[in-house]
Structures are given as C-alpha cells and as structure tokens.
Amino acid sequence: MAAPALPLPLAVAAALLALAAAWLWDYAVARHLLRPRAVASVLRAQGVRGPPYRYLRGSNGDVRRMKAEADGAALDARDHDYLPRVVPHFLAWKYKYGAPFLYWFGPQPRICLFDYESVRQVLWNKSGHFTKTDTHPTILAMLGKGLVLVEGTDWVRHRRVANPAFAMDKLKMMTTTMVSCAERLIRECEELAATNKSGEVEVEFSRHFQELTAEVISRTAFGSSYKEGKEVFRTQKQLLALAMATLLNLQLPGFKYLPTKNNRLKWMLEKKMRTTLMAIIQPRLASKGSGFGDDLLGLMLEACFMTEQGEKRDELALTMDEIIDECKTFFFAGHETTSHLLTWAVFLLSLHPEWQERLREEVLRECGKANPTADMLSKLKEMTMVLLETLRLYGPVLTMLRKPISDIRLGSLSIPKGTGIMIPIPILHRDKEVWGENANEFDPLRFENGITNAAKTPQALLSFSIGPRSCIGQNFAMLEAKSVMAMILQKFSFTLSPKYVHAPTDLITLQPKFGLPIVLRPLDV
Ligand code: HEM
Predict the structure, then answer these.
(1) How far is the CA of 46 from the centre of ligand 1 (A)?
(2) Per the CB 3.0–4.6 Å rule, which of 179, 357, 367, 442 could disulfide with 376?
(3) pLDDT tens by residue, 332-344
(4) Domains in the chain, ordered, with CATH?
C-alpha cells in the first residue's frame, strides 16, 4: 500500500529543507572542509607543505598580521631587497616549509612557485588549461571583465578587437599626445622652480605621475572626451581604496548582494563609472558613418565592426557591456602601472647620478633639446636598459595567478584542479641562480644585449608577463615612459629629497608608501 502523501505546504517545506541541507553540506562541509583537506593531502604526499588550513579564513589572518608587522620598518634607500616588507608571508613560509609551498587564500588552496621552468609552463600554455582565478568583486567592479580577465573564445574575440589599437604605427601617433601631456608637467615644474631663488624645487613625483598617466590614457583612449575619461580615473581610485580595505575579509556566499555600507559604495561607484563610459561610447557609435576616431576607443570600435578576414560586419563583435568593461580595463591597466614605472625609474636615477648623466647624454644626442618623436625614442638604447632594470627590481605588478581547469602535471608535481598557482614576480626577479650574484643591485648593463640575454634563463623578465596572455600595452607603456623620462632629463637634474622614506608597498601595484619627493634643478640656470 502507498504511503499517504504529505499535505502540499508540508511537502514544499520538506523539499526546501532538503535543498537547504544539501546546500549547507556542499558549502560548509564539502567545499570548505573536505576539499581543502583533500588538496592538502594530495600535495603533502608529494612533499609540498605549508601553513595549516583554517576554516573559511585560510591563511588570510596570518598574511594580514605579517604584513602589518613588516609595514613599520622603512628601508635604506639603496636597499632594493624590499621582499621582507612587501611579501613577508611568502618569505616566512618558504623558509619554514621549503619551495614550493601551499597556502590558503580563504578556502582556496594556492601553491606558490619559485622555479622558472614551472612558471614558463603555466604562462606559455596555449590550450587554455590555466585560467585566471576568481576576482574579488570590488576589483572586478574597478577593472571590468575585460581583456585581463576574460577566458577562452571570449579572450580570442576581445584580443582580436583590441590588437589593432596597439599596433606600432598607431602608438607612434599617440606619442604626440604623450609628449604634450609631459610638456604640461615640465612647464609646471619650471614655473615652480622659477619661484625659488636657488632655482631648486621639491616635487612629489608619485602623485604627479599618476595624474600625468591618467591624462595620457584619458586623451589616448577617449580623445576629445578626455575630461569624462578623467572622471573614470577618480572613480577607479575610490574603488581601489575600497578593494584594498576589504581584500582579505571573509567572503561569505551572497554577501556581495547585501546592502552593507561598502557594498552600497561599490554599487554607487560602479553605476557612476558605467554612466560616464556610456556617455562617451554612445555618441561614438552614433557617429559610425564619419568614422570612430583614431584614439584607443575609436580603433577598438572600428575593429568591432570587422570580421577576422577584414570584411565589414553590421553587428558589433563586443556587446555594449563588454565595450564598457574593456574601457575600464584599458583605463586602469593603462595608467596605474605606467605611473609607478616612471616613479621607480626616477627614484633609481636619483640614486645613480652616473646613470642619470648617461641617459641625459643619450637623450641630448638622439633628440637634442626638441620634443622627442617616436623615431627618436626608438634609438634610446640605454634608456630602455634602465627601464627594464627598473621593471625587474620595482615592477608594478607583483604577482600573477592562475588555476588549472583539471588536474595537471607541473614539473614533477601533480596539481589538483582548481588549485591557485601563485607567481611571485619580485622573488623570481631576485633569483641569484638566474640573475647572478648581483640580483639585488641596480645594474642596467645586464640588459645590454637585450631581454633574452639578460639572465641565465631566457624570458626571465616577467614584468609584462610572457606567453599568449602577456601585456598588450607594453609598447604603449615603454613609449610613454621614455617620452616622459627623456623630457625630464632634457630640462632637469634631480636628487632624492632628504624627506624620502623608502617603504615600497603593495597596493595591488608596487608603490612608494609615502610618495617620491624629488629635488629638481633646472639645467639652464
Ligand atoms: C609598466 C606598465 C605595465 C606593466 C608592468 C604591465 C604588466 C602586465 C602584466 C604582468 C600582465 C599580465 C597579467 C596576468 O596575466 O595576470 C598584463 C596584461 C595586460 N595589460 Fe599590462 N602592464 C603595463 C601597462 C599596460 C598598458 C599601458 C595597458 C593598456 C593601455 C595594459 C593593458 C593590459 C591588458 C589589456 C592586459 C591583458 C592582456 C591579455 O590577457 O590578453 N598594460 N600587463
């Protein structure tokens, strides 16, 4: 005989209860307890050890504590080994557990690699086996799901649309914009110096470079709409501050949908950025007949209406949301990194007057006192060497992250699917076996025979990454950095201000915590 059926409300309640219990089991037990244990045990069996897993929080508390302890100690300005300040947790775990080690970003297992061979295997993989890891919601809001974060066929589509905007002939045209933005900064410094009897003036370059590179990307990306573009810069800065404050917080499911104070601020900023970008993009799309313009946005829209075979198409290759996200990506990736490259290059040249003089001679030889052109900049070999050495020692991007989509062999290790793979760039850049005994010293001569011959391992410089996902904007960044450096060297000599405190800090990118005060002396007085 069949059992009597439950009344409907009771049946619904029972079904909901069963669903909730299944979810709770999956979330609280399977994903956050059993899986971390299983991953740790697979890796432990292969000799990979690390800090113990703490339920939900993983190693985040330890990272926060070690970083806070290290943050108090400033370094001698000539000490380029800032690793104990910036990545104290990686050093401590490497020392205690050996390399590679396993740690926990919340419940996510992460294996930290220290050998170039495995790093190359990950970054050069073309089968899409290693994807980017899940991105923190506030970072996603700031950066957009553009080229940096998309995967698979979406990535192919986005990269095809973005590539033409970064072709060398287009970048050469953009050099004029870079130079005219730098001219304004130089003029401002000259005017400041003129107000001082001694002719010397102290300038905080970190802030100036952030404004300069935001101006450059606003103008090169959005042409005549650059003022609205700068609004994006201000909003991204606020989102960056919010991301830094919440990055290591516990991420509970559904939390990002709750109207907390931080979430509401995030939503407001996200909406503001979207409205600003829509106001820039829509008139461009409407002007289809008369061309989209030769700035980054225009070139990208142009490519959106082309097929792979170069024929015209009626529909956009990217949706409006994807174009908005791509604009956010270019904007953030395009100014934040380059401004810090400039900051650290000025820092290093102020410590090494012999290199400052060498570069000045090279600039005056190749460009005279005129504003540099792209062709002149391409002849600045020693400048390139100094910028590459700056990227090696003080590269703005500190880490890269990937995760395999299925279990995979990496060197002698078998890595379980979904395990985060952490690539700590500044640690690898100081590997003495690869870079030589003077790996911690500033020595641009190591790049005398090009990047490939700079170290014992080819492609050891990871600052722009390597492989198919390497930086699309590297030529843009190098041209911009060279224009600005050349123009400063033409007009000023400079030294580090006694007020400078050497405290490199991880704020998603590597930055001087207290800015970069520099004493400038005009050369013509
Ligand atoms: C000094 C300046 C720069 C540095 C150090 C730098 C560094 C990097 C690195 C390390 C990556 C790889 C990230 C990863 O795979 O996780 C990357 C990717 C990328 N960068 Fe840059 N970048 C710089 C300038 C720029 C500029 C000026 C732009 C654009 C205007 C830009 C746009 C991008 C984009 C769109 C990607 C993603 C490429 C892809 O996945 O196909 N970057 N960058």
Answers:
(1) 34
(2) 367
(3) 888 889 999 999 9
(4) 29-143+398-429 (3.30.43.20), 147-396+463-524 (1.10.630.10)
